[in-house]
Amino acid sequence: MTSGGNNPKREGVAALKKLLDAGNLRLSTGDRLTKHFNALVHVGFRTPDGKRHSTNYLVERDDERVSILLLTADTLPFCYITNKLLVAVDTRNPGQLLLHEGGNPSFAISSDHREVHSICDISYRSRAEKPNLVLDFSAILDACVGKLKAAEVDKKKNSIELETEHALVSVELPYPDDSQSFPIKAFVMSGKAKDWLAVGSIGVDSRAPANFSGVTKDVIESLGLPIRAMGVDEAGRVELIAPSGFGTTEKEKDAASRLTKLFYGKKPPGEQGFDDPEE
Fold first, then answer.
1. Which residue, of 57, 177, 224, 236, is most buried by count of CB atoms within 10 Å of its CB?
2. Would residue 25 be called left, alpha or beta, if left means φ above 0 and alpha means ψ between -120 and 50 degrees?
3. What are residue 70's DSSP bridge partners?
4. Distance between alpha carbon 43 and the CA centroid of its chain, in Å?
5. Are 208 and 38 in contact (CB under 8 A)?
6. pTM for the complete prediction?
7. How many CA atoms lie within 13 Å of 63's alpha carbon, on the beta-carbon side?
8. Residue 91: exposed, middle, or buried by beta-carbon count in 10 A (0-12, 13-18, 19+)?
């Protein structure tokens, strides 16, 4: 945090309060008004040996349908979850895909109010009747209010910069002439426990930059990769963070390339990746 201005903390707190008072900072499948939205969510942490490890989640609600594309930090797709379908690379058998039909995805970002750090929960619920998608920025920012150590407005970035005992938070706001209709343009939360959450490319009443429509079991089978069907219990245990070292073998590269072409038609756009907030 840098100092400057007559009272940077007062200005920062006022800007935060204004943002919270205006509301509409929560997107979810339970919202009856906003039925179409998408965002790119980047989650990272330090491994026990001190290395950074991160995963990108491209999430979309399209009315009753929820789609989640999981990518490595290098934007290699390794898993896709949507209503009644999960497809994932088989890390034990490179080049093979795992598939399950019948479950639903659940994805939520929120906050731990006691220590004020981000929570990102993703799962494939093999027995769930409906998908679930929640991006709750209001809960995270509300948690920050009671734990603020510093707050200021960065006019150059058009952002609100916050510091609590356990985290640093940057909330970038859209400019008045931006076409974006969501109150937050980008959000970064870096925990002092060496974990981080970044959310960008938040779109309301728009489609994600990947093509999720029409991706079915038949389409997956047309990729020409070997596929193994999973049972209910195995599907519920699939790892939903980027596999360490994924993309280092030719078979993994080929599988990732075919998935990339399926969803993007080409290499994912550069903005699909984030720089780690710690760096």
1. 57
2. alpha
3. 57, 79
4. 7
5. yes
6. 0.91
7. 1
8. middle
